[in-house]
Amino acid sequence: MTPIWVQLAYLACAVCFILALKGLSGPRTARMGNLVGAAGAVVAVTIPFLYLDLDHVPLMLGAIAVGTGGGVVGARTVQMTQMPQMVALFNGVGGGAAALVALLELHELVSVDSAEAVSWFVLAATAFTIAVGSVSFAGSIVTFAKLQELMTSRPVVFPGLPAVFALSLVATLGLSVSTVASPAVTIGVVLALVGLVVGVLLVLPVGGADVPIVISLLNAFTGLTVAAGGYVLENVVLLVAGTLVGASGTFLTMLMARAMGRSVANILFGALRGGSTLGAGEASDRPVRSAGPQDIAILLGYADRVIIVPGYGLAVAQAQHTLRELVEVLMARGTKVDYAIHPVAGRMPGHMNVLLAEAQVPYEQLQEMDEINGEFKQADVVLVVGANDVVNPAAKTTPGAPIYGMPILNADEAKQVVFLKRSMRPGFAGIENELLFDPRTTLLFGDAKESLGKLLNAVKAL
Amino acid sequence: MSEPVVWLTIFVLSVFVGIEVISKVSSTLHTPLMSGANAIHGIILLGAVLVTGTTDNDVALVVGLIAIVLAAVNMVGGFVVTDRMLQMFVRKKPKVSTKASGSTGSTSTDAA
User: Fold this and answer.
1) Helix (H) or strand (E) holding A133
2) CA dihedral in degrees (A332, A336, A341, A346; nearest 10)?
3) Beta carbons of A380 and A416 less than 8 angstroms apart
4) Check: CATH 3.40.50.1220 for A293-461?
5) Cβ neighbour number for residue A99 with a 10 Å cutoff
6) For B86-102, how does the pLDDT look when each residue is reduced to its tens digit (9 = 90+)?
7) Which residue in A143, A126, A258 sits closest to A180, CA to CA?
């Protein structure tokens, strides 16, 4: 029987996780929330060392040190633009750990407890953790590879993929049932391997733009595996923490999908049904109006109201600092400037806010889509930096477009639109943007950082 | 209540708490929230320690140690990277009080 003080300490840790999630959902409390969660986690991991007579303590402490070192180095050195794939990687290893723990527990259940009957429900929870943990691991590794561009970020579909996918799902189910019926470690290992296949096949057909939603979904999966693991190990912290993450992660996934005007099912299986989640992706040679930095500096410098629409191209060019300088110069000239942040700007919801915050852009200049969408009519100039799909009117006007239904920033309502673009290549969704060919639109071609630098100098010289 | 029902009760209540606590999150914080939740499930480290510390099988020990390394990467890396993201939302300039009220304002609009 677990001592009462240990149970109470576990309860306190579980409360820490609830407070952590609560804190993380508000801007002022977020950092404290994260620290409370970290404190709860550290305390929870310390407890078994205090009250149990564990074997292999030095080895385990060494393993914790190795993992901690790896985690800290990874977390400290990753660039903010690469944040989504880092989260995917961390999620994947968590899922893998859960699957391994469940395999070990299965080994324990079949070898030690063979005399007394093990509840079928415990075995079912073990099989669930093995299967879903493996799915989460493999799926996260594929999302990592897609975002890191180790492989194509386009949907990968091959003939027969749906059949193979269905087959591996059936195999997973069958192996899970036989884990319950006649528990054996070998079956568990095969189940884990099939789970890896399911994970890969689940994520392959998802297009790059939708990958963040999949990360969030896999995150929820891992949470549920941890919860199931908690039930098997009869540990209340694991159960509560895992369930919290599973529930909030699922809810967050739906919030993100809604922000993109998509359903989760459409994101996962859209490519399988034939309607690719990404479009053609070819550049158009229709005429556009482009101008030099001087002309655009005059447009900006004498405007009363400017709205900036930042996109992932800004982040890739590492131009967020130059952009902030330009905005400061414009504001010093008396122009009212705001940043219009689309919920999925960047590669992940909220990613752009993180990137701009890193460049010391004041929080109150960042306007969310719903707040600013009514103001585009009054804007003299909308400056679109490295964004495309989030201002594409096709989302409102072309029912067949892959992004149709996605809420967009109403840049097309402004008096003038300026795009800073590297080329005419379409955005992540791979479809042409009519706004580029609008008579009110001017383009400035080039790397976002160079273009902004030139604009900055030209505006200063006005 | 029988033992499984107690666990089921905890599970169901946790589902509702998990949804409720984040239901008012602004889209600004989606990424840090996902990352923070990701770190929390790194608590599987506790499970990895519990199974590894009680095994007497060499293969199981090796597998357990791998699980511990992976879980520690998830947990520690997750919290550190979340903190790094959130650090950027905090200003250390004199205008702190106005920033704070500004962000409160936008939170209440999100909630509305």
Assistant:
1) helix A120-147
2) -30
3) yes
4) yes
5) 31
6) 887 655 443 333 434 44
7) A126
pLDDT tens digits, one per residue of A194-219: 999 999 999 998 876 778 889 999 99
Angle, alpha carbons A63-A198-A204 (nearest 5°): 100
Please give the pLDDT value at position A153.
Answer: 73
Position A273 scores a pLDDT of 57
Q: How far apart are CA B101 and CA A335, in angstroms?
A: 23
Percent of residues in chain B assigned helix, strand, coil, to nearest 5: 80, 0, 20
**Which has more confidence, A208 or A273?**
A208
Within 8 A of A48 by CB-CB distance, chain B residues are: 46, 49-50, 53
Residue A265, classified by CB atoms within 10 Å of its CB into exposed (0-12), middle (13-18) or buried (19+), is: exposed
Q: What's the CA gap between A125 and A129, in Å, rounded? A: 6
Beta carbons of B45 and A97 less than 8 Å apart: yes
ipTM score of complex: 0.81
Sequence ranges of the domains in chain B:
36-105
Task: State yes or no: pLDDT of A283 exceeds 70.
Answer: no
Please give the sequence-ordered ranges of beta strands (E in DSSP) within A163-304, or none if there are none. none
**A387 and B CB contact within 8 Å:** no
| Nearest CB neighbour to A238, from listed B43, B57, B95 | B43
Active site positions of A, annotated: 389
Query: How far is it, in rounded angstroms, from Cα A457 to Cα B15?
Result: 54
By Cβ distance, the residue of B24, B40, B73 closest to A93 is: B73
Q: Which residues of B touch A75 (CB under 8 A)?
A: 76-78, 80-81, 84
Every domain of chain A and the residues it spans: 78-269, 293-461
Question: What confidence score (pLDDT) does residue B87 get?
Answer: 82
Q: What's chain A's length in residues?
A: 462
B65 or A434: which leads in pLDDT: B65
Answer whether 0.90 is exceeded by the pTM.
no
Which residues are registered as beta bridge partners of A308? A339, A383
How far is the alpha carbon of A160 from chain B, nearest alpha carbon, in Å? Answer: 33
